[in-house]
Amino acid sequence: MGLDQVRLNAIIDGEHSFYGSQRTEVRVDRRFNPGTRDFLATQVQPNMRVLDVGCGSGGTLLRLSSRIASGLGVDNDPEHIRMADEALRESGAKNVEFRQLDFLEDGGDLEPESFDLAFTERGPIGFGGHGMRLALRALKPNGLLFCEMIGNLHHQEAAALFGTGQPRYRMTRSLDEARVAMERNGVDIRLAAEIVQKRCYPDVYEWLRFQCSIWAWLGVPLPTPDDPRLALFAERNTIDSGEIETTHHVVWVAGVKADHTSGSEIFHHT
Ligand SMILES: C[S@@+](CC[C@H](N)C(=O)[O-])C[C@H]1O[C@@H](n2cnc3c(N)ncnc32)[C@H](O)[C@@H]1O
Fold first, then answer.
1. Which residues span the domain enclosing 43?
2. Alpha carbon distance 156, 164 (integer Å)
């Protein structure tokens, strides 16, 4: 498959950032896949104080803001906090705050037992036992912990040809590993799921625009426009519609901190 070298060059030479990847055009097949924000929105209550660890540009917490009492989003990247603050101003929400904080270094500064729900979307609660223990410390007894991690099949089509590079963070990637870590730290597991989604880009150029943002963020060297793997990638992953199909795979593990009675409802078995 011959690719347009000029277009490839323009994309590779462009500016790339983590949130730049969200500006690419993609068709998402959500069947059997609720989406993290939609799922969290079904779990929150109006009296809850919520902690988002690794909040990025703040979209999830702002989406939840009208359904909760208050929220705090923390992230160690000052650019992400700047974006979150800007989104907060635009939203007009008054019950949410964003703070620059390296959670793994300074998460212990958060007031203990002060949150009803702590969650992370591919952020530092999922980087190992230390992050999980800090999140549990911040949670009230009987509070909820939700952790989304990147799964082993995530972007498997690109990984098969280009490798995965050095991961930016050491993240737990398997459901079993995450379950064991939570159980060991005293969480009563209520949810453990593999979420697999198909994402389709209109063509290989749009996929490359997305992928360069991810590679640049991960510190993976970008391919040169004449890299034969780009044509091979297009050949292998073009589907009947002409789109490029890729796999998005995350792992969800969630549970309750201690106290086995409150929060439950009484049902009469018939
Ligand atoms: C995969 S991104 C997800 C961001 C956001 N939750 C979203 O879904 O758009 C992970 C986030 O965790 C943040 N992060 C990584 N290490 C961190 C740490 N030690 N403390 C706080 N935030 C961290 C990154 O800056 C990034 O914004």
1. 5-257
2. 9
